[in-house]
Amino acid sequence: MKKGLHKTIQASFLVASMCFTTIGVNSFDIFADDAVIIKDNSGLYTVSVEENLTDGKLYECPYEKILVSDKVDSIGKYAFAKSLSLKEIELSDKIELVANGLCFGCENLESINLDSVKEIGNYAFSDCKNLKDVKFSKDIKRIGVRAFYNCSSIKSIEVSGNVEEIEDEVFSGCSNLSNIKLNEGIKTIGKGAFFDCDGLTNVKIPDGVLSIENVSFKNCDNLYNVEIPESVNYISASAFAECGKKLVIVAKKDSYAYKYAVNNDIKVSENIVVEAKKDEKIDISDANVSLDSNIYYYDGKRHVPKVTVKMSGYILKQGIDYNLVYTGNKKPGIWKAQVLGKGDYEGSLSKDYKIIVTPVRGFRIKNVKKRSIKIFAKKRNASKNITGYQIAYKDIKNRRFKRINTLNTGKLEYVLGRFKKYKTYQVKVRCFVNTNGRMSYSKWSGIKQVKIKK
C-alpha cells in the first residue's frame, strides 16, 4: 500500500483491540452446552449463533464459518474482529445494521451476505484482504468510513442511489477493484473514497453528484476515462492527483468539470476516449509545455530555458519520457525548445523562446550650441556586445521619423546638427548587434524631445 493517507487506521483499531485483549476460551460461552460445531459440506468448521452478540463477543474466534439465525437481530461492534480463521458469514434477514468494525482484520473472510443490510458501519470490513464477493442491498442507505478499506480482492461493486455519500476512504486500497457502478442519488464522492484503486480504468460519476473531494481518486495509476456530469460544481485540486499519464476527463464543454480539467492540465474530451493498447504509444503532442522563461537578453552567452512537460496532470521526465533539442541558444532570434517523445511516448511538439537585444535605457538629449542636439548615455547599455546604435529624429509637427543616423560604436554619444532655431524635435534610439553578418535590432526607446534655443 502507498503511504500518506492511511496512517491513522492503526490508532483507530488500537482503541478497539485494547477493549478485547482479555478474551479467551470462556468468551465463547454462548456456545457452551448446546453449541453445535460442525464441518459442513464446504469443509468449514461452522458454528450457529442463536442470540444477540455484544461488542467484541467473538473477537479472535477460531471458527471458519458463522451462521447467524433468525433469532438474532443485533450484533455488536467488532464482534468478529481479528478472527483470522473466519472465511464465511451468513447473516439472518433481520440484520439491517452491520456495526462498526464487525469484521475488522478478518484477513481470510471471503464472503458475507448483505441482502437485508441497510447500513454498514465504519471499518466494518477493513483489511478483509480476501473478501471477493460484495453485493449491497438495493435498500442500503449508508456505507461507513473505511468500511472496505484495503479489501484488495474485491473486483466489482454497485452502490444504490439511496446512498447519498460515498464516505471517506470507503474503498481506499481496493487495488483489484476494476468495475464500479454508482447510481443516481449519490451527492458526494468523499475524501480518499477510491484512493489507491489501481485496477480502475473507467469511472462514470452519476448525474446528481455535486462534489468530488480531496484525493478521491489519487494514485489510481491506470485510470483512463472519468465521465463527470454537469451537476458537479466542486472538484478538489487533489481529487485526481498522481493518476498517471493517460487520464482523460470526459465532460461537456463549459461545464465545471471541463474547466477544471483545463486548469489542472488534465486531458479533456467531450466523448469517451478508447484506451490505447499496451503496445501503443502516447502522442506527446497533446502535452502541455511550459518554459521557466521565454525571453532572454543577448549577451553572447548560451541561453536555454528550463522545460516542464505535463500530461493529464502528470509531469513527464526528461530522458525517460522525452528528449529536448534546442534550435538555437546564443544569437538573437526566435528559437524553439523541441520535445521529442521517448519510451511510452511518440511524436513531438515545440515551444518558442526569444533572445533579444536589450533596449536602450536612460539616454539623454540636450540642446548645445550651433543649433545642435547631443544624445548620450552615462551608462553603457545592458548588453555588453552591442555593435552600434541607430538614432531617429523628426520635427514634432511631422508624423513620422524619416531621418536615421547609424553609430557604429558600443558607446552612445553623438551630436546632431543643423536644426532650426526655436523648433521642437523628437528623438528615439535603438541598438543593434551584428552576428556573422546578421543584424538584430532592439526595440526603439521611448521618445524624448528638446526645443532648440541656441
Written account of the structure:
The chain is mainly beta and 454 residues long. Among the domains are: 1-154, Leucine-rich repeat, LRR (right-handed beta-alpha superhelix); 283-356, Immunoglobulin-like; 363-451, Immunoglobulins (Immunoglobulin-like), CATH 2.60.40. The protein has helices spanning 9-19, 256-263; strands at 37-39, 45-49, 65-68, 88-90, 97-98, 111-112, 119-120, 142-143, 156-159, 165-166, 179-182, 188-189, 202-204, 211-212, 225-227, 234-235, 248-250, 267-269, 282-283, 288-291, 295-297, 307-311, 314-315, 322-326, 333-341, 345-346, 348-356, 363-368, 372-377, 388-395, 403-407, 413-416, 424-435, 438-441, 448-451. The strands form ten sheets. A five-stranded mixed sheet has the order 1-2-3-4-6, with no helix packed on it. Strand 33 (424-435) and strand 34 form a beta hairpin. It is rod-shaped. Residues 6-35 have low confidence and may be disordered.
Produce a short descriptive summary.
With 454 residues, the protein is mainly beta. The chain has helices spanning 9-19, 256-263, and strands at 37-39, 45-49, 65-68, 88-90, 97-98, 111-112, 119-120, 142-143, 156-159, 165-166, 179-182, 188-189, 202-204, 211-212, 225-227, 234-235, 248-250, 267-269, 282-283, 288-291, 295-297, 307-311, 314-315, 322-326, 333-341, 345-346, 348-356, 363-368, 372-377, 388-395, 403-407, 413-416, 424-435, 438-441, 448-451.
